[in-house]
């Protein structure tokens, strides 16, 4: 089997995905005039096979996840995507079919999220497949959200549902976990999909920009990310009901000890936002208009302890650690 | 030995390197107002241990090379650095000492080239150390150089000397190559250094912007990169004398067959530029003022064949392939 060289890889698989700023990817660098009156937002996530995804995941899904986790960062900043750069370190055993499927998935999402490929680098990896995506976005000047401006009494919201992805990851275990065997086939598919393909909440950006004091995307588990956000503002919170999907609730009925994993597992890519009380109603209206479900989970209070979560019976949940640690 | 977690790594090693746009790296994304009247230039290079550098190279040098190869891309575009993002996939056996030395080297170059760290991602690599740097720069609006606008009769220039890095890499071979044993100790040190630490030609940017039709940095070997640049404009060239360092000339005296490696080996990170004849004198003056040696190597001519190189006796050199292929 003949495999194309680097220039052919770029020309055949990636140039069709490129936007005007990428100059057909015939150059080493992308260039563009930033939109007038806008600030730039730049984010970068790195993903390794065996750590952030499985090497045998569908190649299109690997590509889409890599792009989406970056888009999720842009969403949390209230930013509109401008384009992305792809760093791709391919292991020795890559095939043209694999790469074609990878590029097809990437192109689908680049089009769907209006975020064209504008540059990057393709190299040989001595080990596992490694991806690095840098996404650029823009926000009206001065309006970028940060994590660090939560105020006392702000209402804490999360989008979507929490903990699905860590359950989807759990279902990949061999042998499958006992609780997994009790789930309906439909719930299993739903949870696996939530691990495989996060949904960046880009449509929430207008609501966030208009109403939120602070926001971040939840990538390392709700408990840890919430603690991190509140700590930056010297705050804590009592957390009430966290939104769980029907599938996650099914899993919790099978094994109630899973609650800690749901709260601390990673890969949710939902939005956590702090909204002042007088903006709460308009935030909820704007989120509904954007068709993104959001749920109040608590209120920011003065304090330096990590936020406390409660089970449905109102008892505080003991968490051994707040989030998944990579190191 | 206790190793810090991801948040501590960022706080301890990388936050001190961050510029204002990086917000102390406490957030997921960098934000900044692009300089008014400037276009943005964005470039990304990925480097893997065992492919682009040796895992046991000094950690500070690994960091500096990763940044410099990106700065070299900015230099070729005539761009001024604004900042960079670092993607770092650390293998299992990393140590705090290694990371401290890595960050120190990175910080030294970030300061020297006025290119602060503004964001990134640190993850666990299941295999080799992998780095991905995205560098952002700016050029006055509309003035960005590309590779693709070479005109017939343009004079082709290269900066510095060609082929040193591939010789420096050769000297790392075990056993050392025969020609290596004939080199002076001084030449060996020089060539190894040229492989380890490229010199991004950022000071050439004013000269390039004022006078050049097209430019690129030479990363995959002069022969291949020149062919690539000329092909984009439907041109070719007869190439005369290529500048070689005293050390490279010493190696050529020991083994004249090395000439092909010098012309096709990678990692030069010198600038290749096409300058119209009526701008040649001012280009040379501006380069001299910037203290960057530049040499005319030929003239662009109509044609579709790859450019032909000649040895000192004026004979055409047969090259088996034009550049180092990663795939």
Automatic annotation (TrEMBL), chains A, B:
UniProt keyword terms in alphabetical order? ATP-binding, Kinase, Magnesium, Metal-binding, Nucleotide-binding, Thiamine biosynthesis, Transferase
Reaction equations catalysed: thiamine phosphate + ATP = thiamine diphosphate + ADP
Give every PurM-like N-terminal domain span.
Answer: 27-139
Give me the residues that bind Mg(2+) 2, please. 45, 73
The record lists Mg(2+) 5 as bound by 220
What is the uppermost EC class here? transferase
Q: What is its EC number?
A: 2.7.4.16
> What does the entry list as the binding residues for Mg(2+) 1?
45, 121
Report the pathway entry.
Cofactor biosynthesis; thiamine diphosphate biosynthesis; thiamine diphosphate from thiamine phosphate: step 1/1
Q: Which family does it belong to?
A: Belongs to the thiamine-monophosphate kinase family.
Name of protein:
Thiamine-monophosphate kinase
Specify the taxonomic lineage. Answer: Bacteria, Pseudomonadati, Pseudomonadota, Alphaproteobacteria, Hyphomicrobiales
Q: Which gene encodes it?
A: thiL
């Amino acid at each position: 089997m003949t495999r194309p060289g680097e220039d052919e890889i770029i020309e055949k698989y990636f140039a069709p995905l490129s936007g005007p700023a990428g100059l057909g990817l015939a150059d080493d660098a992308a260039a563009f005039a930033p939109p007038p009156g806008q600030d730039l937002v730049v984010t970068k996530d790195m993903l390794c096979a065996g750590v952030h995804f499985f090497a045998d995941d569908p190649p299109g899904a690997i590509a889409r996840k890599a792009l989406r986790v970056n888009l999720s960062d842009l969403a949390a900043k209230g930013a509109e995507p401008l384009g992305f750069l792809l760093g791709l370190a391919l292991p020795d055993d890559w095939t043209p079919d694999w790469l074609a499927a990878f590029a097809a998935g990437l192109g689908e999402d680049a089009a769907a999220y209006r975020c064209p490929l504008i540059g990057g680098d393709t190299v040989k990896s001595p080990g596992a497949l490694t991806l690095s995506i840098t996404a650029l976005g823009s926000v009206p000047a001065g309006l970028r959200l940060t994590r660090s401006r939560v105020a006392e009494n702000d209402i804490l919201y999360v989008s979507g549902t929490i903990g699905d992805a860590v359950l989807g990851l759990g279902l990949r275990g061999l042998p499958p976990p006992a609780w997994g065997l009790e789930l309906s086939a439909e719930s299993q598919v739903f949870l696996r999909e939530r691990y495989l393909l996060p949904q960046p909440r880009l449509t929430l950006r207008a609501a966030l920009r208009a109403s939120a004091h602070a926001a971040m995307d939840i990538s390392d588990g709700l408990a840890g990310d919430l603690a991190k956000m509140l700590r930056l503002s010297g705050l804590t919170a009592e957390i009430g009901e966290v939104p769980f999907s029907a599938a996650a609730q099914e899993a919790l009925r099978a094994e109630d000890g899973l609650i800690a994993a749901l709260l601390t597992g990673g890969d949710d890519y939902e939005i956590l936002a702090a909204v002042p009380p007088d903006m709460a109603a308009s935030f909820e209206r704007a989120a509904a208009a954007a068709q993104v479900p959001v749920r109040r989970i608590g209120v920011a209070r003065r304090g330096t302890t990590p936020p406390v979560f409660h089970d449905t019976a109102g008892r505080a949940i003991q968490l051994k650690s707040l989030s998944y640690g990579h190191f």
